[in-house]
Amino acid sequence: MTAPPTLGVVLAGGLSRRMGGSDKVLLTVDGLTLLDHAVQRLAPQCDGTLVNANGDIARFRTLAHPVVPDSIDGHLGPLAGILTALEWSAIHRPELEWVASVPGDTPFIPDDLVRRLHDARVEAERPLACASSGSQIHFAVGLWPVSLRHDLREALLEKDIRSIRDWAQLHGYAKASWPIEPTDPFFNINTPEDLAEADLLAQQGGIR
């Protein structure tokens, strides 16, 4: 199937202690920031793309996409970033009914991600979909209906839910799966060693 019109959001949250406290998504791989890699992979699959990030947005001044801070206070993690995208879409792009999210430290997301997430949720008759590779589910790589924005706000503020997995399980989710060989397309950067490995992969053409 052709994917319905979908807003893409790159979750580019806080600082990384394991990377020396730097703004991880601004670290470079093969001459581009991790954020640039994620945006370049996601944007062609979507009908608009934004970045969710807190703090001084001036550090993203070269980015050609909106940068939107959390719509609720407290630095509540990636689930708050998903809420932000759902609420932003409802206000600024009301014709879009879906949001696809990816983490900013995952530079090799598949080129067919959004379509396959939609295929999975239709086939499984579930309202949500998440990516998986091998035995791991990547809950931050997911597809979310804008219609659930009020439910998600309540979950964060009144039910104290912080985990994407916990919220997704409340509604039921489909899984779209990718192989991890020869390389996991959801390889993410957590350490300097990961960054070096990603740089090598990118120089070799990345993961397609």
Give a written overview of the molecule:
With 208 residues, the chain is α/β, with parallel strands linked by helices. The chain has a single domain (6-203), classed as Spore Coat Polysaccharide Biosynthesis Protein SpsA, Chain A (Alpha-Beta Complex), CATH 3.90.550.10. The chain has helices at residues 34-42, 78-92, 113-124, 149-157, 164-171, 192-203, and strands at 6-11, 28-29, 32-33, 49-52, 67-68, 98-103, 128-133, 136-145, 173-178. Strand 2 (28-29) and strand 3 (32-33) form a beta hairpin. The radius of gyration is 16 Å and the shape is globular. It starts with 5 loop residues before the first strand and ends in a 5-residue tail after the last helix. The model has no long low-confidence stretch (mean pLDDT 91). Residues 8-166 form the MobA-like NTP transferase domain. It is an enzyme of class 2 (transferase). It catalyses: Mo-molybdopterin + GTP + H(+) = Mo-molybdopterin guanine dinucleotide + diphosphate.
Concise description?
With 208 residues, the chain is an alpha/beta fold. It is 31% helix and 21% strand. Keywords: Cytoplasm, GTP-binding, Magnesium, Metal-binding, Molybdenum cofactor biosynthesis, Nucleotide-binding, Nucleotidyltransferase, Transferase.
